[in-house]
Design a protein that fits this description.
By secondary structure, this protein is an alpha/beta fold. 41% of the residues lie in helices and 22% in strands. The protein has 11 helices and 11 strands. The strands form 2 sheets. Strands 3-4-6-7-8-9-10-11 form an 8-stranded mixed barrel, surrounded by 5 helices. The protein has a two-stranded antiparallel sheet with strand order 1-2. Helix 4 links the parallel strand 6 and strand 7. It is globular. Bound molecules: ligand C2E and calcium ion (3 copies). The site of one calcium ion has 5 residues, from strand 8. Keywords: Membrane, Transmembrane, Transmembrane helix. One of its GO terms (molecular function) is cyclic-guanylate-specific phosphodiesterase activity. This is EAL domain, c-di-GMP-specific phosphodiesterase class I (Or its enzymatically inactive variant).
Length: 278
């Protein structure tokens, strides 16, 4: 019986006929979201491992759809990547973050560093000119930005990626290898990448207190990273115990719900005025 179908897919019209509501198609809704200002950026704090002083923020994209509500980046970023929309989406995030840093500065707040997630698909020659233009437009130096690049796709187009990452670093932007340990990057190529930081995936931090060899894995990664003159960022730090162990292991930067889940521009200002000894 169609009329008793309460799946939400079918609505009875006043005349009794059935009209099928249009299915929600992420790719279509996403291009509209860009135009209709449904996207925003939140900022999650990163602290120094040794003293808990604020080290910077990671910019995380949020999408509030008027009907569907909050849609997770894990649902729409892959769609943006497969449809090619990631270029304009990524460009919007960079521009939005720079606009916000300029706004904070005009209010008298100096934000140490903002890390932006950048898809490997964005790493092309035009990114270099776009970034240079945005930095100039907002009178910012590249040193206020870091780009986080996910390991998994980097190796597919290695030479071009190295070229673009080097160009970004020449503009003063720091480069962080995100989700380190979850992909399959070969260690010989790792040493050839122009990097400043390794970002340990949160599954390592979870394994830290587990029965597995998490502690020794992180110990080995930190030693390797430091030998390559890379700083290590641990994400997904949720407990004081994890913080303590990561401190023992000389992890340079910590990020996770223990220090804050992140928030809007005003939340950032409250982090800036916070004393870690309080
Ligand atoms: P990611 O870069 O690995 O970001 C970390 C994710 O872990 C974020 O999820 C963050 O909210 C979450 N997280 C932070 N602290 C904790 C914690 O203590 N415990 C746990 N369980 N989770 C924590 P989110 O915001 O849902 O983002 C998911 C992924 O989407 C990101 O993973 C990133 O790969 C991608 N993403 C987010 N924003 C952007 C963007 O602007 N551009 C691109 N290309 N990708 C983005
Ligand atoms: Ca990230
Ligand atoms: Ca990550
Ligand atoms: Ca991740």
């Amino acid at each position: 019986n169609f009329l008793s179908d309460n799946s939400g897919q079918h609505d009875a019209t006043p005349s009794g006929r059935l009209s099928r509501s249009a299915p929600f198609v992420i790719s279509e809704a996403l291009s509209r979201a860009l135009i209709e200002r449904q996207l925003r950026v939140i900022y999650q704090p990163q602290v120094q491992g040794h003293d808990e002083c604020l080290a910077g923020f990671e910019a995380l994209l949020r999408w509030h759809h008027p009907v569907q509500g909050e849609i997770a980046p894990s649902a729409f970023i892959p769609v943006a990547e497969s449809t090619g929309l990631i270029s304009s989406l990524g460009q919007w995030v960079i521009e939005e973050v720079c606009r916000q840093i300029r706004r904070w500065r005009s209010q008298g707040y100096q934000v140490p560093l903002v890390a932006i997630n950048v898809s490997v698909l964005q790493l092309n020659q035009s990114l270099l000119t776009q970034v240079a233009r945005v930095l100039a437009d907002y009178h910012l130096e590249g040193a206020c930005l870091e780009f986080e690049i996910t390991e998994s796709r980097l190796m597919q187009n290695f030479d071009e990626c190295v070229h673009v990452l080097s160009g970004l670093r020449q503009q003063g932007i720091r480069i962080s290898l995100d989700d380190f340990g979850t992909g399959y990057s070969s260690l010989d190529k790792l040493a050839l990448l122009p990097l400043d930081r390794l970002k340990l995936d949160k599954c390592f931090v979870e394994a830290l207190t587990g029965a597995s060899h998490g502690y020794h894995m992180i110990e080995a990664v930190v030693r390797m990273a430091h030998a390559l003159h890379l700083a290590v960022v641990a994400e997904g730090v949720e407990t004081p115990r994890q913080q303590q162990l990561l401190g023992e292991l000389s992890c340079d930067i910590l990020q996770g719900y223990l220090f804050g889940a992140g928030g809007d521009a005003n939340t950032v200002i409250s982090y800036l005025s916070r004393d870690p000894d309080d």
